[in-house]
Design goal:
alpha+beta, 8-stranded mixed sheet, 4-stranded mixed sheet, 14 helices, 27% helix, globular, binds zinc ion
Length: 526
């Protein structure tokens, strides 16, 4: 008996699928000769069909979108049930894969359905000796349902339209991992806390730039990412996945980037801040891979490039499953207290120029919108230039032993809890020498971004003796999420809770940052 139809009873579509008829099970993209992409109901029907056909695939859900759509999760592997406990009990390496966080970037959604059909037909069986996969092909389900032929107008299809970038609240879900304004991001961090995947893979399509790669990728880019996580990705994993893609298709891949129009040509990546999925997961001491299929390759080629890249990524994970687990444990146990970490960062130029493959495009017309779309030409132009695919600290701060959050900062405490950060509360007042951040000035961005006017404070720490009242929350950095704690609570952090206005009500006329800290060991609580 499959749990899928118990949990998703209302979503089980009346299609009878057996092992033999799986080959007739096509995605909407395949059925329409890649003119269309799957609706939410298409995806749910497909997931139910493959789960019915294979004991390796079970379905559950892990959250609800703004408009009330269940967020599906396919649990793939030898697992007795779909609960976090059942998945954790396998002791295997856990890999979370999501498509469609930007719902116009639909290649991952299609690729993961095809991959699941392969699994249901008996392919990739060797993966499940050492891995359990957690797959959500349609993360931004509400955005997906806002189909329009004018969404992402220059992208090469699907010509009959695709979903929109933001969710139903207008939030870009790939900017929401720190502030957690959306139920989708809340569900994702809930999944990170409960299923604790060792690896997160986020599937996108590129914006704008014209290059010679079918797919580009990125590891976590924040300079505070634990070296045990970063070194494996940078030295072997991503290149190995790219080689798999090349073998399967003859298509090239490289680190994500683009060449700007002004100044010296240089290959530049995007951003280090943990509002982005890959950077956030990296700060949680887990492996993260961003995949970006090339917008001007045909839709079919983008789907296949994404599928082959994911397969190459999983093949590496299979061969290195225990090493991946060992490294996350090493990162979780590493002491960062007392070290200097970045609160802000800047792009770092490569030591030497590198060879970049640039590309060209032809203009075509989308017959359904009459608008110009671009299609990659099968040529590459090799150019040598510096690249900026890493970041270095531009401002650092010492990691304290603990932060002290006043009990009235309820929104701060609520966000910390949602992220899975551990803290305790003082049972009685505590007299302590602490560091107080004296605020010299504060600025808020004139233009709203993600419905926020991002805030910055300027000032410096001073040592002072204070009595912390009972109820004050004590957040230690010596915990697995220590790097995230630092990024959320440091007042100068470029992506912290202060930046996202969570502390605004406590900052009115304030001369000091309401969250205190200590760099010295202390006793006396709870
Ligand atoms: Zn995207």
């Amino acid at each position: 008996m499959h749990t899928s139809c118990v949990l998703l009873a209302s979503l089980c579509l009346p299609i009878a699928v057996t092992g033999q008829s799986l080959q007739d099970l096509l995605t909407r993209a395949e059925r329409s000769n890649y003119e269309e992409t799957s609706t939410y109901d298409d995806v749910m029907g497909f997931l139910n069909a493959v789960a019915e056909a294979s004991p390796l695939i079970q379905l559950t859900t892990f959250g609800t979108t703004v408009e009330g759509r269940a967020m599906p999760l396919a649990i793939v592997g030898h697992v007795d049930g779909t609960s976090p406990e059942a998945v954790l009990a396998t002791g295997k390496t856990r890999v979370y894969i999501q498509g469609n966080i930007h719902a116009g970037e639909v290649c991952g959604k299609e690729a993961m359905q095809m991959f699941l059909r392969d699994v249901a037909q008996g392919q990739h069986a060797e993966l499940f000796d050492s891995l359990v996969l957690l797959i959500n092909p349609i993360y931004n389900a509400d955005g997906n349902e806002r189909f329009d032929v004018n969404n992402r107008p220059r992208q090469h299809g699907p010509v009959r339209g695709m979903g929109q970038r933001p969710n139903a609240q207008g939030y870009d879900l790939n900017r929401d991992h720190m502030k957690l304004d959306s139920p989708e991001a809340r569900a994702l961090v809930g999944l990170m806390n409960s299923y604790d995947p060792h690896v997160g893979i986020d599937l996108h399509t590129t914006n704008g730039t014209r290059h010679g790669y079918h797919l580009t990728y990125a590891p976590p880019l924040h300079p505070n990412t634990d070296p045990a996580i970063l070194s494996l990705l940078e030295s072997e994993w991503l290149v190995s996945a790219g080689e798999h893609l090349l073998e399967k298709s003859g298509w090239y891949s490289y680190d994500y980037g683009g060449v700007g129009r002004r100044g010296e040509p240089a290959w530049r990546t995007f951003d280090y801040r943990p509002r982005f999925n890959n950077n956030y997961i990296g700060l949680r001491n887990r492996f993260a891979i961003l995949s970006e299929a090339y917008a001007y390759a045909t839709f079919e080629e983008r789907v296949l490039a994404t599928k082959y890249f994911v397969e190459g990524t999983l093949e590496f994970a299979r061969r290195n499953a225990s090493e991946i687990r060992r490294r996350t444990e090493e990162a979780d146990a590493r002491k960062i207290t007392g070290t200097e970490l970045a609160v802000r960062a800047q792009p770092k130029r490569s030591a030497e120029p590198v060879e970049i493959l640039l590309g060209e495009v032809d203009e075509e017309t989308n017959p359904y919108s009459d608008r110009t779309i671009l299609r990659r030409r099968d040529v590459v132009r090799r150019e040598t230039m510096y690249e900026y695919i890493e970041f270095e600290a531009s401002e650092t701060e010492r990691v304290p032993v603990a932060y002290f959050v006043p009990a009235e900062a309820t929104q701060v405490l609520e966000k910390l809890a949602a992220h899975g950060v551990q803290y305790t509360s003082l049972a009685s007042p505590l007299r302590l020498s602490v560091q107080v951040f004296r605020i010299d000035s504060t600025t808020t961005a004139e233009r709203a971004f993600q419905q926020h006017n991002e805030r910055q404070v300027f000032g410096r720490y001073r040592q002072d003796n204070r009595t912390l009242p009972a109820g004050t929350a004590v957040v230690r950095t010596e915990q697995p999420l220590g790097r995230l704690v630092f990024g959320l609570l440091e007042p100068r952090s470029s992506d912290g809770l202060l930046n996202w206005n969570v502390l605004d009500s406590l900052l009115e006329d304030a001369t000091e940052y309401p969250i205190l800290r200590t760099v010295l060991p202390f006793i006396g609580f709870p």
